[in-house]
User: Fold N-acylneuraminate cytidylyltransferase from Dicentrarchus labrax.
Amino acid sequence: MAPLTKRVVHGDEGVRDGLPACKQGRPGGKRHVAALILARGGSKGIPLKNIKMLAGVPLIGWVVRAALDSEMFDSVWVSTDHDDIEKVARTWGAEVHRRSAQVSRDTSTSLETIQEFVRLNPEVDVLCNIQATSPCLHPFHVKGALKMILEDGFDSVFAVVRRHQFRWQEVKKGSDEFTKPLNLDPVNRPRRQDWDGELCENGSFYFTTTDLIMKKGLLQGGKVAYYEMLPEYSVDIDVDIDWPVAEQRVLRYGYFGRATPEVVRLMFCNVSGCLTEGRIFLTASGEDMVSVNTRDTMGIRMLQKEEVEVVLLTSSQDPVSRSLADKLAERTGCQVVQVGEEPLDDLKPMVEKRKLQWKDVAYMGNDKPDVNCLNLAGLSAVPGDAPVVAINAAKYTCHSVGGKGAMREFAEHILLQKQKAKSQMKQDRIDSCSH
Assistant:
């Protein structure tokens, strides 16, 4: 679906020698375009908010992924003063600018931090400041806005959203004044459908030439344009402080990467640590026992109902008895397969035999041996109590821990992505028929 885009241009500043400032780049016209995401460690509202998990992904991971997948940037950076944020940023593929103490204070402005980055990276000609708190950013937003800089001659472009809210003048407590309307006539109060509304910054991104940043100290100046984003993509965690509400918005409208999770046909799930708590009980008679949560078995049935084959994995490093594997197979209706030290070696032939690609596969693991499969699968997840090495490789981190609903949670996530894809395909057909 094409982005809804409108423009407003102010003034003719930034024109030198007959060319807009944004057209006077390097020899040959090639300019270095960088994305910069500001992520200071000292959040007052939510500690380390920028790497707090939102819908299974660190908050900053949503915008880093969208920036990288847009393929519009020569470099993608995270500016931070915190070691943990640096680790997460690098894990998600960004370069890191360790900002100085001078621009890491509570009183430091975004502009000061951006100017420091530009001074240290003089090769950058166009910079996009992407807000870490805007997790519903998609690559097509970035592409549409940057085109306005690179092809249409604007010096700065920023994101807006259309709001239909009537505003009234504030009256201070104890004042004798009365409030009055600021953007409506109460006598002729318009219906929503008869009013265009107003454009408000949504904070998702600010594209600016570095000349404008360094010479005039502006993120919005010269030839200015706006890029209008639809309201469903305008999620700002600074406003949506109710994290569960924000998560539901992101699960519905967020960008989950280039993979096409709607075609998942096969799921691999570790028994130990995912389907169970990772513990095996030994009886006096020598039998093995495990505890399986009914929520998780229901999650398996939900996937099977949608024609997703689920295969349960046991490890040669932590084997379960044949009788126990048979009982699991009988109870869940799943094939139970034992894998070696590198599960990928055993699973590749199974994927190929079914004539599938790894983008068609979901994988749920919980430790270091699973890393290669977690990276390769179109959708991958770990329980909330998985070690960091597995969390960093997974595309989704569950709130629930192993054996206590993690499998059910991941199943719901898979089915939600499938539902989103069907809705998008339907909308694409409607759009194509209307042209």
